[in-house]
């Protein structure tokens, strides 16, 4: 691919143009093992991702799409949006994708720079990105741009009826009761819409985020909570924990409970 890149900022009307670029990123994630979790069929992924982008476009203060164009062909994109982290305004780099033929020419850095410049112009000084587990190349790229480890998300998605997803015993379907039990373990329980656009998941995803310093200090009870969520129909759960090495015992416990490191959150302040 010859020629120079142009970076164009576009609006939500350009979302359909992102399909082949998202497919390229999906293929890359599949090639590196997708964090050891079962993935959806390739043809199912883009419609789910497109729905996610449109939901962001409707719900967030602003969503920004930067396209990388070479010789009238779109070869990469960065999609970011405004959010908050620890009470401060932040820009979340939701997706960064470059076609294989255009990689190695610094295009990812150019796209990140465009996102950073827009955030700076808006007075936003915190940047956030989530990297798939088992993707050291992407992690190295972001660390080289000044990002630092912040937290990890460990995911368990075990469909009912599978050997791993057979959960027995009495449980409650009362979300308030389950939230109280999560709080006792130091986690806030919330739910995000599913299914996920990369991994096989339930129609909604249980999100366990640390709410105290001792979150997850009782792995056995955490495992029981995950089982009860699954019996209640929420068989996909993500558990957020601090980045290693501080969380090393909990990381091992989550792995033993069938969770996998799905994403690592990196932050630059």
From TrEMBL:
Gene3D superfamilies: 3.40.630.30. The keyword NAD does not apply. Keywords: Acyltransferase, Transferase. Residues 5-184 form the N-acetyltransferase domain. The keyword Membrane does not apply. This is GNAT family N-acetyltransferase.
């Amino acid at each position: 691919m010859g020629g120079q890149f142009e970076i164009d900022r576009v609006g939500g009307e350009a979302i359909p143009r992102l399909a082949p670029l998202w497919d390229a990123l999906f293929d890359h994630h599949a090639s590196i093992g997708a964090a050891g979790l079962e993935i959806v069929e390739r043809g199912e992924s883009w419609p789910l991702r497109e729905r996610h982008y449109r939901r962001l476009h409707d719900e967030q203060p602003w969503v920004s799409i930067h396209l990388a164009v070479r010789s009238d062909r779109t070869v990469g994109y960065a999609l970011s949006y405004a959010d908050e982290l620890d009470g401060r305004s932040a820009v979340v780099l939701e997706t960064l994708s470059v076609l294989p033929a255009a990689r190695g020419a610094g295009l990812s850095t150019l796209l990140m720079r465009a996102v950073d410049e827009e955030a700076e112009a808006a007075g936003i000084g915190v940047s956030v990105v989530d990297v798939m587990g088992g993707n050291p190349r992407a992690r190295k790229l972001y660390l080289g741009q000044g990002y630092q480890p912040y937290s990890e998300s460990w995911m368990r998605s075990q469909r009912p009826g599978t050997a791993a997803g057979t959960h027995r015993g009495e449980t409650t379907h009362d979300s308030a009761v389950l939230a109280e039990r999560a709080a006792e373990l130091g986690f806030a329980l919330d739910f995000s819409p599913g299914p996920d656009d990369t991994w096989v998941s339930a129609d909604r995803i249980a999100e366990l985020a640390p709410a105290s310093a001792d979150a997850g200090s009782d792995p056995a009870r955490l495992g029981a909570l995950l089982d009860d969520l699954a019996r209640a129909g929420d068989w996909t759960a993500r558990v957020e924990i601090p980045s290693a090495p501080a969380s090393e015992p909990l990381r091992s416990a989550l792995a033993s409970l069938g969770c996998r490191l799905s994403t690592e959150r990196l932050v630059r302040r």
